[in-house]
Design a protein that fits this description.
Largest sheet: 4 strands, antiparallel
Distance between the termini: 15 Å
Number of domains: 1
Strand order of the largest sheet: 2-3-1-4
Low-confidence stretches: none
Structural class: alpha+beta
Order of helices and strands: EHEEHE
Shape: globular
Strand content: 35-45%
Number of helices: 2
CATH architecture: 2-Layer Sandwich
């Protein structure tokens, strides 16, 4: 079963559109949307396990130009929590 996470992303001023376009191309990103509120973008990330989530966030998402800060929230249902 894949591990699903929600990655809350803050971007640099004026960089949200370009960052969103790049994030939608990252392997493992099932969805990415611009949102209102304290974060600029929320991504749904699906990976094989927690280590893979960390690899995608630190190795790919953090490298997207314009991404300044992330908060990763792991979905408990995806881990068998009921």
């Amino acid at each position: 079963m894949a591990t699903r996470s929600f990655v809350l992303i803050e971007t640099s001023i004026g960089k949200s559109r370009a960052a969103l376009d790049a994030l939608r191309k990252v392997n493992g990103v099932a969805a990415a949307d611009a949102v209102t509120g304290p974060y600029d973008i929320i991504c749904v990330l699906e990976a094989r396990d927690l280590n893979a989530v960390g690899d995608v966030v630190s190795g790919q998402i953090h490298r997207v130009p314009g991404v300044s800060r992330t908060v990763t929230c792991v979905a408990m249902d995806a881990m068998g929590y009921r």
